Amino acid sequence: MRHLFSPLGHQSLSTVMQLKPLLAFDFDGTLAPIVPRPDDAKVSISIANKLAQLAERLPVAIVTGRSIADVQPRLGFEPAYIIGNHGAEDPFDAALDTDRLAHIEQLNWLRHKVSLEADRLLAAGVSVEDKLHSIAIHYRLAKDRELARATIESILQDMPLGLHIFGGKCVVNVVSEAASDKGKAVQHLLQRTGRSAAVFMGDDLNDEAVFTIAPAHWLTVRIGRENPASKAQFFLDSHAEVATMLQQLLDAAP
Fold it and tell me: Structural domain of residue 121, as residue ranges?
C-alpha cells in the first residue's frame, strides 16, 4: 500500500473520478471515528456535508457492519444506498429474500448459547449485539481483554457448520457462511447503478472482501497502515485524513 496523498495516489483518484464511479464507504473507523461506546458513533457535520455534496453528483453507498436501522440516523446525510450487516442486509436485492430467513435462523444456535452464558459474558466485560442478520460480540470495554477473548472463544468452540466467524477491532462477528459479504455487496451495487468503477474506503477485516476483489481501475483506500497484508491499493494514516480525501473527490468530480 502507498499513502493516498502521494503523486500516484492523486493520479489514481483523478483517473477513477473521470469514470463517474460508485462511491462506497464503511462507517465505523472510516466515516466515523472509533469510539469506546458504539452508540456514540456518528459522522461529523463537516464530513456529512461533503458526502451530501458528493451524493448530488454520484451514487454514494454506505456498506457497514451495523444494521441499516442503526447506522441511518448517524450519517447526517441521505446516501443513495445503505447496505448493512457486512453485506447480508440489502433491501435492494430481491435475490437475497429467499435465503435471508435461513441465514437468520442459523444464528439461533449462538443466540441460545449467549442466553445460557449471559452471566459469564457480563463478568468478562463482554457485550453481545444481535443485529438479526449477524451477531457482534464486543469486548472493547473489558478490563481484561485477554480474559474477554478467551471467554468468547470458549463459547464459540462448538459452533456448528454453516456459521462464519471473523474478527474486527475489539469485536468478534458471526454470520451465516452463505450470507453476502461486502465485496459481493459492492459488486451488486455496481450492477444496480450501471457504473464501471468504484471508490471504496474501509478500515477493518471485513473490508478486505472489497479490497481483494477490486480490479486495478477501482480506487480502494484503507484507514491505517497497521496491516501490511491488506489488499487495499492505498492507505490514509487515520480517520483525521478522511475529510481531506472527500474534498479531493469533490474537486475531481466531473
Answer: 98-176
Read off the amino acid at residue 65.
Answer: G
pLDDT digits (tens, 9 = 90+) for 139-180: 999 999 999 999 999 999 989 988 989 888 899 999 888 888
Query: Are 52 and 155 found together in one domain?
Result: no
Q: What is the pTM of this model?
A: 0.89
Q: Which tens digits make up the pLDDT trace of 86-122?
A: 998 988 776 555 667 778 888 999 999 999 999 999 9
Structural contact between residues 200 and 218, judged by C-beta atoms closer than 8 angstroms: yes
Strand duo 134-138 + 171-176: pairing: antiparallel
26 counts as catalytic: yes
So what's the pLDDT on residue 203? Answer: 95
- In this structure, the answer to whether residues 18 and 53 fall within a common structural domain is yes
Kindly name the residue from 26, 70, 181, 203 that is annotated as catalytic: 26
Asked whether the beta carbons of 120 and 113 are under 8 A apart, the reply is no
CATH number at residue 151: 3.30.70.1020
Between helices 145-156 and 108-116, what is the axis angle to 10°? 130
Which phi and psi (to 5°) does residue 32 adopt? -120, 140
